[in-house]
Amino acid sequence: MGALQAEHFRKIREAMDRGLLPQWVLTDPDVWALEQERVFPRTWQFLGHESEVPVPGAFVTRWMVHDPVLVVRGEDGEIRAFLNACPHRGTLLCTADAGTQAAFTCPYHGWTFDAQGALIGVALAHQVWGTELCRAEWGLKPIPRLERYQGLLFGTLDPAAPPLVEYLGAMTWYLDLLVGRSGGMEVWGPPHRWVVAGNWKLLYENFTGDPYHVQSTHRSTVELGITPQRVVRGWQVVLPHGHGINVTQYLEVPERPYQRTPEALWPRFREHLNPVQEELLRRAAVLVGGIFPTLSFVSPLHGTGEDLYNFLNLRVWRPLAPDRVEVWSWCLVDRAAPEAYKRAAYKAYVDSFGPSGTLEQDDTEMWARVMQASRGWMVRDKTLNYNNVINYLMGFGRVEPDPTFPGPGTAYPGFVDAVSRSTHRFWLHLLTDGAEEGSGEA
Fold first, then answer.
1. Which candidate, 428, 416, 421, places its Cα nearest to that of 442?
2. Which of 87, 135, 220, 400 has the least C-beta neighbours within 10 A?
3. Domain that holds residue 268
4. Any bridge partners for residue 59, and if so which?
């Protein structure tokens, strides 16, 4: 474990048991090295949505932290994911973000692969190789596991990982509500990408476990009416494996229910959701949460005045370093929604959570300030007195779960840090290779 010893992990656990977290874990290079070995390769990571590869030959290129991935729909209609590298010399194979083509040719030595990953062309094959090259042995390397849920594509580098639905657990109930509510969603526009100063854990919990920051960080949007404030109750729901969701609702069913979506969609909601999910969605204002380790989502209302629109923003926090993250951000809309509504919802997404969106700029500034305050010796000192801790004490030992909450998981009313504390437990469980107890379950 390099500079990290068992005593360090014991003290981290002791701090977490008191609702605290040593701040140095945000920037420590030894922690970062272990995360790359034990956290990211062993969990399921979001790669995209099936609507991004709608026809045979359609592809997108993605990353699983530092592993480049080529996601492509084959001629047989199946979606596959490969290491985006030519097996001949390991060259990055496809540098385009997305497109449609029947084959992929390596620019280094000209080897060509079809959309199923098979090697179908070798430059100067007979002159150079004769009959000694077995093409069947030199196709693209598939990533160990690719599975999907409600059109969402996830991959893992661990062949022994539990099935995706098992890893998601009760989060599937909420994904049904978010992406399965009308029979299917579609990605609107390509994903935006930008790099921010921040630690991936902080960014993940900003969405998954921190609605508290809205009143201060996003105060200007509250005052301008961009962020609706008629919500009268909310819950933070702790789910296994570091996942979580925050549900905020109107006390009474609003005049325009279902997050002000078009009325033409309402019968679809009643068709695809069970009565409990449908009632939750009827009163919903904002749903925001995350799937550990790097996928966050928010289903908000955004706009001005009465012109408020709903969309689903998915975002991956791709870690580049302990203090630097590449943000990948998608806008999804109900496939059955009117085209005019889709365009308006996409504009609302760009205005709020796009790279230059109002809420995005607010958050980015705060993440950078945390990094600025996390680089000095007082924070980075790993001596075992652990005075350099940060606070996750909201509701700690005081707020009890609400047994009347209708959905699965452990739901706490109001502002609490329950999801963040659960996420930290699961993170430490993975980081210590299971030596520390705690799976992140409530």
1. 421
2. 400
3. 170-431
4. 72, 99
